[in-house]
Amino acid sequence: MSVGRISRRGLLGGSGAAVAGVAGGFALSREVEAAGGIDGTTTTYAFRGAHQAGITTPAQDRLHFVALDVTTESREELVALLEEWTAAAERMTRGAGAGPVGPVEGSYLLPPDDTGEAIGLGASGLTLTFGFGPGLFRDGEGRDRFGLADRQPEALRDLPHFPADVLDPRRSYGDLCVQACAQDPQVAVHAVRNLIRIGFGRVSVRWSQLGFGRTSSTSTSQDTPRNLFGFKDGTANVKAEEPAALDEHVWVAPEDDPDASWLAGGTYLAARRINMTMEVWDRQPLGDQEAFIGRAKGSGAPLSGGEEHTAPDFDMPGSNDTTVIAPDAHVRVVHPDAHGGARMLRRGYNFVDGTDDLGGLDAGLFFIAFVRDPRTQFIPVQNAMARNDALMEYLRFTGSALFAVPAGVAEGEHVGHALFS
Amino acid sequence: MSVGRISRRGLLGGSGAAVAGVAGGFALSREVEAAGGIDGTTTTYAFRGAHQAGITTPAQDRLHFVALDVTTESREELVALLEEWTAAAERMTRGAGAGPVGPVEGSYLLPPDDTGEAIGLGASGLTLTFGFGPGLFRDGEGRDRFGLADRQPEALRDLPHFPADVLDPRRSYGDLCVQACAQDPQVAVHAVRNLIRIGFGRVSVRWSQLGFGRTSSTSTSQDTPRNLFGFKDGTANVKAEEPAALDEHVWVAPEDDPDASWLAGGTYLAARRINMTMEVWDRQPLGDQEAFIGRAKGSGAPLSGGEEHTAPDFDMPGSNDTTVIAPDAHVRVVHPDAHGGARMLRRGYNFVDGTDDLGGLDAGLFFIAFVRDPRTQFIPVQNAMARNDALMEYLRFTGSALFAVPAGVAEGEHVGHALFS
After folding, report:
1. Do residues B68 and B196 make contact, with C-beta atoms less than 8 angstroms apart?
2. Is the domain of B124 the same as that of B144?
3. Measuring CA to CA, which of A213, A371, B160, B317 is 20 to 30 A from A75?
4. Residue A206 is part of a domain; what is its CATH number?
5. Domain count, chain B
6. Nearest 5 degrees, angle CA A249-CA A252-CA A253?
7. Which of B352, B356, B358 to mutate to test the interface with A (most CBs of A within 10 A)?
């Protein structure tokens, strides 16, 4: 992929008009321009809509995720920040600069309102998805920070401690989050960096995570990618083309939490930084690896047979008085059948963050799941994994966070408008 | 870019034959297959040749760089490792698995000889470039480790301490290095991870660095990309299409160091992890930013006028009794005119590694330069920057390493064959 020659400002002029007026529905309808360019550099997804983009949007290849703490004590400053972020996000997801002036225009006596490193890169399918953490509602002592405490969703609490959690507080929690996904990592980094810049004096970065390879598909139009265990991951993911399943498993309904009706049309984002002990994994026999997962490494088919998307037969008898899919196989432990039908929309990414203290790579899966209620969908599955999953021997959970992701942004409104009105 | 459907093993069968027999010349001739696929996923560069690939090869978009320490004391084990790495590198750069069996074939009772996460991703223009650090020749006490001490190049010493160096020893030095570049970061990560796996018991990872966006062009066929200051970088780079300049500035000649004639046809790789204080930079007026660099932010043209590739006029008078290009402008301080014509082949990458302690991004430029002699090309330029460069206020050097990069690998030989024979 070469750097394109169309400036981001030029692109705005050319395609901005086409972006307006795209209605909700599921995510594929957000794709308003995919013509021209190389590798989807000109693909744009509308920022405004019934739901936020970056959830059912076909999972882009690259991620930059940031969690921030709010440092201002002023509700007005917080709202002003969300307004400014909304305007900047709408521009950047169209492929334009973060500000109205641009990276190289305007006064030589002022800092540019865009940092410039994405000039010429196109929108690259950028989506920006915003979330609110528990700390936005109450501080560590339970005090109401911004007059929002009585609107805190019941389900929006710090995740409980799970077995195998060795959380680094510098990689966990946060008052706000932004998930930036794009086909070009420099576009995702540029967007996050400019949102941080805009937030100067009102927010500070708590932690930040890059992901280089998606590990889930969110559309039936996508192949299932592979995680760093070398296996296809998230085969049973809720997909954009399943509107009924999205309503059941992803989107918060108005009646779900009457005190937090502002979250209707939104969802919860659970983030978990999962270090994988790859050096140990790589020394396991192929048969053991497949037994731990419960799927064939090549095709992704369940060990009970068929193809990748064939339903696993958990009762199929195997040798040695057990089933073909072992009792502690990952696919069985996390399967919706074991959790009252609960499903998630997963949107995780592989990461490598340098080196660990053991002479290996600090690497693994940055797990992201969108769920309608973490108490019934995410937490029980995580607990079941901790109790029973053969994979746990190869996992260490080093980061954890939960955010409420408000519904999409309507014209004239800002991110999270309903929460503040 | 979606995950392709061509298996890496299938690709090997289809294109492996076309790879053989490609001769030296400059890097573009290495491109033996660029047809089909999306985003160059099927682009392959021959591993063997007069020079190692990954130097003059048109700079790929993504980087995974690893520095390793040798833990064995056996020369035979070290040579065996280089032989195994050579075989694996040749396979992986063709788009095949790391081992002859493959990620999902062979015995269920044995670990696979490939970790599997790159199944279906194609070669993606992967290059693997190997280097030898000073520690391979003598340990910290000056002892000859592998019978190589008398072949250590005079120029291969730990880089001196430079002003503004705040080096993290966990991000510096190393006995061996591998630079993996590819269009798809998962392909680069997969390659490094498998080389580490193959090295188990003989090497341990010292440090590892991902880069998400190239900051240099190594071919006139490429646009000049932008660093995280938002500026075009490396405009004056030595390019693949300049064979005379490559001979003068990049490739070591046999007469350069008679005791290290094994390095003829090779080069030196200087790596510097440069943290950029982006939050401070972003608050500087556009005019100041351009004055610090000496170029226009939009076009990349020198402030003395023209276009990006116009030669800067360092004498052009400006206002206030000084020149248009300030005495401390980066472009002046590092320009070949200030260093007896010395040029470098730069091949750096932007990075973001999470968060720093100040509530900002741990981000910057992972600088890589290939030079014929670091003593006359890299070190003087670095010292001049430290003394005079307006940019220094925004830079902190947190990692540093120097490696000798042997010549290309001929048929029947392994990486660094001449050093050990």
Report:
1. yes
2. no
3. A371
4. 3.30.70.100
5. 2
6. 110
7. B352
